[in-house]
Design brief:
It contains 8 helices and 7 strands; from the N terminus they run βαββββαββαααααα. With 272 residues, the protein is of the alpha/beta class. The strands form 2 sheets. Strands 1-2-3-4-5 form a 5-stranded mixed beta sheet. Strands 6-7 form a two-stranded antiparallel sheet. The N and C termini lie far apart (75 Å). The mean pLDDT is 85.
C-alpha cells in the first residue's frame, strides 16, 4: 500500500508571507517520511514557484491546481490551458488594458504590471518579471503543448508555406513597454523603471512618464531635428544619432491616437 500525505503551501506549510517553514513543520514532515509516507506538495502555484525546504525533500508536486503533476523523476500528468481559451483570455485582458502573466514548467513572465498582479506575486514572495518577448513566449508555449500531444506519433506533412514579412518600425515607449524592456535587458523592477523615468522627467530630460500611449502628435514633428541634434552631444549616443534621419516620418506620428499624454521621448534639454 502506498501512503501519500498532501500539503498545501500558503497557510499550511508556510505562514502567509513567510518563506521558511517552522521547525515543528519540518520535524513533522521528516517523521512522516521516516514512516515511509510520501510527501506531496499540492498548490495553486506554478511548478517554478514551489518552495524548497532545507531538510525535507518532497516526493511529488501537484501544481497549477492539479494541471501539472510530477515526481522527482518524471511528469505524471500535464493538462495545460487550451490554446484557444488562452488566446481569448489574453485578448480580453488586452481589451481591458490589464496586464497578464503566463507560466509553465519552464518560465513565468508577465507583459506588464498592475496592482492585482503585484499582489499575487508578492503573496508567494515572487519577483514579477516583465518580458518584452511575452507574445513570442505565449506562441512557444502553445507550440510546446502541440509537440507534447503528438510526441511519439506518426504524421504526414501536407503542405509548407513560406512568405516574406516586413517588421514594423518599433514605436517609442509608454510606461509599461519601457518597464518590459528594462526588465528584460537590465533586470530592473517595474518600480525602479518608474522611479528612473520620473527622475528624468523632473530634470526636464524626458517627457511625462506615466503614459499608456506610444504615439506622437503630428504637430511636434518639426522638433525632430532639434532633439536629434541635442542628443548627438550626449556621451554614448553619438553613433545612434549619426544614423538618425529627421526627415523620415513613420506611423508613430498620429495625433488621433494620442490619449492624455503622448509617448515618452527626450526633450532635447542638455543634461546637467
Amino acid at each position: 500500500m502506498i501512503k501519500i500525505a498532501f500539503f498545501d503551501v500558503d497557510g499550511t506549510l508556510l505562514k502567509l508571507g513567510s518563506k521558511v517553514p517552522s521547525f515543528q513543520t519540518v520535524q513533522t514532515l521528516q517523521q512522516l517520511q521516516a514512516k515511509g509516507i510520501l510527501l506531496c506538495m499540492a498548490t495553486g502555484r506554478g511548478y517554478l514557484s514551489v518552495p524548497h525546504f532545507e531538510g525535507v525533500d518532497f516526493d511529488l508536486w501537484l501544481t497549477f491546481n492539479g494541471s501539472y503533476v510530477r515526481s522527482k523523476d518524471a511528469v505524471i500528468s500535464k493538462n495545460p490551458l487550451d490554446a484557444d481559451d488562452k488566446r481569448r483570455i489574453l485578448h480580453n485582458l488586452k481589451q481591458m488594458h490589464r496586464a497578464a502573466a503566463i507560466s509553465n514548467e519552464h518560465f513565468i513572465v508577465t507583459n506588464g504590471t498592475d496592482p492585482d498582479l503585484e499582489q499575487y506575486f508578492s503573496f508567494g514572495n515572487e519577483k514579477l518579471m516583465i518580458s518584452e518577448h511575452f507574445d513570442k513566449l505565449c506562441e512557444e508555449d502553445t507550440a510546446q503543448g502541440i509537440m507534447d500531444a503528438v510526441r511519439g506519433k506518426n504524421g504526414i506533412i501536407t503542405s509548407v508555406t513560406r512568405e516574406k514579412k516586413k517588421k514594423p518600425v518599433p514605436l517609442p515607449h509608454c510606461l509599461s513597454s519601457l518597464q518590459k524592456a528594462a526588465s528584460s535587458k537590465l533586470g530592473m523592477t517595474a518600480q525602479q523603471v518608474l522611479d528612473t523615468a520620473q527622475s528624468l522627467y523632473e530634470k526636464k530630460l524626458t517627457t511625462y512618464p506615466r503614459t499608456d500611449c506610444r504615439y506622437l502628435p503630428e504637430e511636434q514633428f518639426g522638433d525632430t531635428a532639434r532633439i536629434i541634434t541635442a542628443l548627438s552631444g550626449v556621451s554614448g549616443l553619438e553613433a545612434v544619432t549619426a544614423k538618425a534621419d529627421s526627415a523620415l516620418r513613420g506611423p508613430v506620428w498620429d495625433t488621433k491616437k494620442i490619449t492624455a499624454h503622448h509617448a515618452i521621448i527626450p526633450t532635447g534639454e542638455e543634461p546637467r
